[in-house]
Amino acid sequence: MGCCTGRCTLIFLCTLQLLAALERQVFDFLGYQWAPILANFLHIIIVILGLFGTIQYRPRYIVVYAIWTAIWVTWNIFIICFYLEVGGLSKDSELLTFNISRHQSWWSENGPGCVRKEASMSGIKGLDSHSYISVIGCALEYRYIEVMHSSFQILIALVGFVYACYVVSVFTEEEDSFDFIGGFDPFPLYHVNEKPTNLLFKQTYL
C-alpha cells in the first residue's frame, strides 16, 4: 500500500497515542495516581502491539488493539465522570490511589497560574517545618485539565478504532484474494515437472 492509506494513518495514530500516553504517565507518576498508572501501562503495551501489527501486517494484533481501544474509551469516560463528580463519584476521594495515600492529581498544585501558600508550623511537634495550606490563582482548575486529557484520549482512540477496523478488513481482503488466485492452480508441481519429463522421454527415444 502507498503512504496515503489507512495503514499509514493508523501508524501515525498509534504513534500519537503512544506519545500522549507517555506524557500522561509522567504526570500520573508525579501525582501518585496508581490506578491510572496501571491503566496507562497496559495502554502503552497494547498500542505498541497494535503499531507492530500494523507495520508487520498482523491483523490479529490489530484486532487486539481495536478491542482495547473500546475498553480505553470506557476507562477515560470513567475518569471524566470521576473528576466532574458524576454519579455519586467524588474527585476528593482516594479511589485512584487505591486508598494508599491522600495524593491528588499533580495538576491540583502545579496547574497554570497556581501558587502554593505555605505557613510555618514549627510550634507543633511531629510536623515538618512547613505545612501546605492552600493553592490560589489557578487559571484553570485541575479537574478540567484531567477532563481535557481524557477527552483527547477518547478522540484519538475512537479514530484509531475506526482505522483499525478498516486496516483489518483490507488485510483480510488481500489475504483472501491471494488465496483465491493461488487456489486455481490444481497441479502446480505437475506443470513444473512437465518439461523435464518430456525431455527425458525424447532422449530415451533417440
Automatic annotation (TrEMBL):
It is found in: Cell membrane. Residues 1-21 form the signal peptide. This is Sodium/potassium-transporting ATPase subunit beta-1-interacting protein. Belongs to the NKAIN family. InterPro entries: Na/K-Atpase_Interacting. The chain crosses the membrane at residues 34-55, 62-86, 152-171. The gene is Nkain4. GO terms for biological process: regulation of sodium ion transport. GO terms for cellular component: plasma membrane. It is a multi-pass membrane protein. It comes from Malurus elegans (Red-winged fairywren). Keywords: Cell membrane, Membrane, Signal, Transmembrane, Transmembrane helix. Its main location: membrane. PANTHER family: SODIUM_POTASSIUM-TRANSPORTING ATPASE SUBUNIT BETA-1-INTERACTING PROTEIN 4, T-CELL LYMPHOMA BREAKPOINT-ASSOCIATED TARGET 1-RELATED.
